[in-house]
Design goal:
It contains 15 helices and 11 strands. With 323 residues, it is α/β, with parallel strands linked by helices.
């Protein structure tokens, strides 16, 4: 073999080795799982997320290898941090915190509504039957300033008292469970809470429910929704799979209440009769479109909860319907 032929053979050998290395790396890349993290909080309102996890719905809807992680967190603030840091792709939270997040530039939008759930303001004092009866010393327990409970109290205060901030001095931040216990013990005069706590309090004949809340936020308006990161939207196939999965989970709940109740016993730690009762409440509704978001956003600007308003185009991805 002359020198020229030897060089050609060596060149072809090198090309073959490089091709094998490149092809091997490409195969490894192709086999690498896509990872998706969905964060949520506690409560029956997150039933669509529970169904998605239990039935592996995202995995079924995505055409490819995927690892879906469901993470339960204690607050919307923790979810927002994860979205900003890139460790969470979909965060499920209350409507008001989501509006605040978009207004402040957190890179996410609504991919699906989750539910409407009941809210109520309960009093253990027979003399307090209206917001107008609340005195400066009467404490109102709710989960925190800026929460949807706080927003609803402010909306009612604006309508009844003419000032959305009229009862801010009465607020005492407590978890739902702490607020319910404090209402029972008399440590606070009022408790503004949501399901399932409100269902338990309504069963107590000694409590009085102030009706102004339902006048400003009717039954069937949005409570919880799912926010998808802008980064997720860049992967159209995955985004579509997630969007479709929320719709399927909501449909499953509406068509299979018995099976949903059985599933929720595992997530909530409650007996099936109690869960069935919660799911059958008129205010417990699951649907994919937004209801009331525009009105809440406009109020939050007017009352000073957010500095600048948002349009529904800024708030929602194109496939989301509602107002």
């Amino acid at each position: 073999m002359n020198k020229k032929v030897a060089l050609i053979v060596l060149f072809l050998f090198v090309v073959m080795i490089l091709f094998m290395i490149f092809n091997g790396q490409s195969s490894k890349t192709a086999k690498k799982d896509i990872s998706l993290t969905i964060a949520y909080q506690g409560g029956i309102g997150y039933a669509p997320v529970h169904v998605m996890e239990d039935q592996n719905i995202v995995e079924k809807n995505y055409n490819g290898k995927i690892s879906v992680n469901f993470v339960k967190l204690d607050s919307g603030a923790a979810i927002n941090e994860g979205i900003i840091g890139g460790t969470i792709d979909v965060g499920c939270m209350g409507l008001a915190p989501a509006i605040t997040g978009v207004s402040r530039g957190i890179p996410y939008k609504v991919i699906s509504n989750l539910c409407s759930q009941s809210h109520g303001l309960m009093s253990n004092d027979k003399n307090i039957k209206s917001l107008a009866d609340i005195k400066p010393e009467d404490k109102i327990a709710l989960v925190g300033t800026g929460s949807i409970q706080h927003i609803l109290l402010s909306m009612a205060s604006e309508k009844v008292l003419g000032n959305p901030n009229a009862l801010d001095i009465n607020i005492q931040n407590m978890s739902h469970a702490e607020g319910m216990a404090s209402l029972e013990s008399g440590t606070v005069k009022l408790h503004l809470t949501s399901s399932p706590f409100i269902y338990q309090e309504r069963e107590n004949a000694k409590y009085i429910e102030l009706k102004e809340l339902s006048e400003v936020w009717p039954s069937g308006n949005t409570f919880l929704l799912a926010m998808a990161s802008n980064k997720l939207a860049e992967n159209k196939a995955l985004f579509t799979a997630v969007e479709k999965s929320f719709a399927e989970a909501i449909q499953f709940i509406n068509e299979n209440q018995e099976a949903t109740a059985e599933l929720e016993t595992k997530y909530l730690g409650l007996n099936i009769d109690t869960v069935k009762n919660y799911l059958s409440q008129p205010d417990s509704q699951f649907f994919p479109e937004l209801r009331g978001a525009q009105a809440m956003s406009e109020f939050m600007v007017r009352a000073g909860f957010i500095e600048k308003g948002i349009t529904m185009e800024q708030f929602c991805f194109p496939g989301v319907n509602g107002k």
